[in-house]
Design goal:
alpha/beta; 7-stranded mixed β-sheet; 5-stranded mixed barrel; 27 helices; 21% strand
């Protein structure tokens, strides 16, 4: 394996805390332990860039794992060693229970098929997680022959126990210090490599979504859903990478195990772990009728009741599951929460507590190609750093810099803020490190999209209170309002309900003798300078003429259209995109003029709207010869509103009832009237 620049930088910045991830795969499957256990061993002996040292260390890890893990059929051999030598050291998952008959704790060691191993109260008090599902540890298992001779004696005892996780208290400081040596792009790649993935094998979208997967590890009381195709590694992060995460496989989830055992007051999984992940969520159900209600209450406030006592916990809840169909079909037949259990599936109050819906369909299926052979942080270093970040918040970074749009409710704002905080903690583990606008905007867009996906499903279920889903934001005091869509709802060649960025407009060309109605998107940007320039190579002559006329009208009527902004002090660049067989964009002067004014004003146009109409140099609006065809074409492309010259009003009396009930036609008298009706009122 050839080391790249990032490998060398990482080895220097995180000396002693990196490991080659292909080594981990070399051991995977050979020993009955999770990945983070293997990496714990590799981190001890293979944290080096010297190939010889790595191979020597790997051999030592192999020897220790061979000597300390119990394979099927070796149970009696280990028991015999404990008897002969007095004790034996092994790596095992340790779970404990209270035996009321003897008023003592007993440990279960599944690989040895032992269910009654004695353990001192001190170990249980120090490691309460062994009472709520257990954890992997290096244990010294002792054997007392005199107790074995007693009737009902329990000769095996845990005499030493060491959790397999990092004990260094200042690890977050070390990670933050090492992060300073890398650019943001390099650090993102480093995080992906640390969980075993090769960034170069993933699309930018898949990289972003994978980083979003990590947010529950760094953000307390964070609720996330990920549904998507099978085989994309949804549960891998929660099962293999961190000892602070617990995976609950499909089946009955007991209230006692999840929250609190009323019989003995024992705290449940959400108190003991940073992340509780429900795998195969479609098969999960609670043992009590009010289980989902308790979970809803916990997801809302981080609290649940035990009798009169209210208990706080910080465990994040993650629900992962599979679609049996693709995402487009799932949206046609229902909504994207369809695979959830029946008691959650159509409950909009439950959905409202979900901070982010992660698009699992944007992550490729797990294959050899997506695994990395390069250096990444040792899993327990990464997991410990993540766990320490939970006590911090980056919500303050947004204050005064990010302004969220009016469509967001209080819960939406809270969800977006938590997601942004989590993403910024991942990118900037040092809370003192300044966050540039570009990275802040990246986090805000991802957060808005993943929360809007929740809102869109609530809207589909039919609740009027979730009708407005047009999420938007602005960066800075005079930041332009930008809208964030969920990509699975968007089609490249159809008119979406969201406002386009300022300077962009959907235009309908009425066509002529040789071509039919055509849909176009006209995109205008402005900067210092002068003139109007078309970016398309060899643009159609009719479109060139429409742009020339629109530019002249803007100069002549600047005061009326854009107030005190002088269009002659700005250079406009225009780009045309055609989505039908019609390419000429003839008679599109009004849409071009509206786009020019929108760019200069920095204001978006209404969502779901298409603009129709030609102009002449004198500013008069040209009549549309086939308005019914134009409106019907607009409906077929998803338009909710068509902005049309008032001269077409009489001809549209013959519009069919079906089209008239689905598309609103707004009439304008002149350019100023058209612009006023076209602008989005945020």
């Amino acid at each position: 394996m050839e080391l790249d620049d990032l490998d060398h930088k990482a080895a220097e910045a995180f000396a002693g805390h990196v490991v080659r991830k292909d080594l981990v795969r070399r051991f995977r499957g050979q020993f009955p332990v999770p990945t983070y256990v293997v990496e714990f061993m590799l981190g001890r002996y293979c944290a080096s860039t010297d190939p010889a040292e790595i191979e020597d260390g790997a051999e030592m890890v192999r020897e220790q794992l061979t000597a300390r893990t119990v394979r099927a059929g070796e149970e009696e051999l280990f028991k015999a060693r404990a008897r002969e030598k007095g004790s034996v050291r092994l790596i095992e998952i340790v779970t404990a229970r209270l035996d009321a008959k003897t008023d003592s704790y007993l440990v279960t060691l599944p690989s040895l098929r032992l269910t009654d191993v004695r353990i001192g109260d001190r170990f249980v008090r120090e490691h309460e997680r062994m009472l709520t599902g257990g954890f992997y540890a290096e244990i010294d298992l002792g054997y007392d022959a005199t107790i074995a001779q007693e009737k009902g004696g329990r000769p095996f005892e845990v005499v030493g126990l060491r959790e397999i996780q990092l004990s260094t208290r200042d690890i977050l400081d070390r990670i933050a210090e090492g992060r300073q040596a890398l650019s943001t792009a390099e650090w993102k790649d480093m995080l992906l490599r640390s969980v075993g993935l090769e960034p170069a094998a993933l699309t930018p979208r898949a990289r972003d979504v994978t980083l979003l997967r990590m947010v529950p590890f760094v953000e307390s009381n964070y609720n996330m859903v990920e549904l998507g195709p099978r085989g994309t590694g949804k549960s891998h992060l929660f099962q293999q990478v961190s000892p602070y995460a617990h995976l609950v496989s499909g089946g009955k989830a007991t209230v006692a195990r999840m929250f609190v055992n009323m019989a003995n007051g024992q705290r449940g999984l959400v108190c003991q772990y940073d992340v509780v992940c429900f795998d195969e969520v479609s098969g999960v159900s609670f043992d009590q009728k009010d289980g989902v209600n308790i979970m809803k209450g916990y997801m809302e406030s981080g609290e649940f009741s035990r009798g009169r006592e209210s208990i706080r916990a910080e465990g994040s809840i993650v629900l992962v599951g599979n679609f049996d169909v693709d995402v487009q079909h799932q949206q046609r037949v229902g909504h994207l929460f369809g695979p959830l259990p029946p008691e959650m599936r159509n409950d909009t109050a439950f959905m409202d507590r979900i901070h982010a819906y992660l698009p699992g369909w944007d992550i490729p299926k797990v294959s050899r190609a997506v695994f990395t052979d390069h250096f990444g942080l040792v899993s327990d270093v990464l997991a410990e750093g993540f766990s320490r970040l939970r006590s911090q918040s980056r919500a303050g970074v947004m204050q005064g810099r990010v302004h969220l749009g009016g469509a967001l409710s209080g819960r939406d704002t809270n969800a977006v803020t938590k997601t942004v905080s989590g993403l910024l903690k991942l990118l900037y583990p040092d809370s003192e490190q300044p966050v540039p606008d570009d990275d802040l905007e990246w986090a805000v867009r991802l957060a808005l999209e993943s929360r809007r996906r929740v809102k869109e499903q609530q809207k589909r279920i039919g609740s009027a209170e979730f009708r407005n889903t047009q999420f938007s934001y602005g960066i800075g005091l005079d930041g332009v309002e930008k809208f964030v869509a969920t990509p699975e709802l968007q089609s490249e060649d159809s008119i979406g309900a969201d406002p386009l960025p300022h300077g962009q407009v959907w235009a309908l060309g009425p066509g002529g003798q040789d071509e039919g109605v055509g849909l176009y998107r006209i995109e205008v940007s402005e900067g210092p300078g002068g003139g109007v320039r078309i970016l398309n190579q060899s643009p159609p002559a009719p479109f060139r003429e429409s742009v020339r006329i629109a530019g002249q009208n803007l100069y002549a009527r600047g005061q009326e259209l854009v107030g005190d902004r002088n269009p002659r002090e700005h250079e406009f660049t225009v780009q045309l995109r055609a989505f039908d067989a019609s390419k000429s964009a003839d008679h599109t002067g009004m849409p071009v003029l509206v786009a020019l004014a929108s760019a200069l004003l920095g204001r978006s146009l209404r969502g779901g709207m298409a603009v129709v109409g030609g102009l002449n140099l004198g500013g008069s609006v040209e009549p549309v010869h086939n308005p019914i065809d134009v409106v019907e074409h607009a409906m077929s492309k998803g338009a909710a509103t068509v902005l049309m010259p008032v001269s077409a009003r009489r001809a549209l009396v013959d519009l069919s009832d079906d089209v008239a009930t689905k598309v609103q036609v707004l009439f304008y008298a002149d350019a100023a009237d058209a612009l006023r009706k076209a602008l989005h009122e945020g």
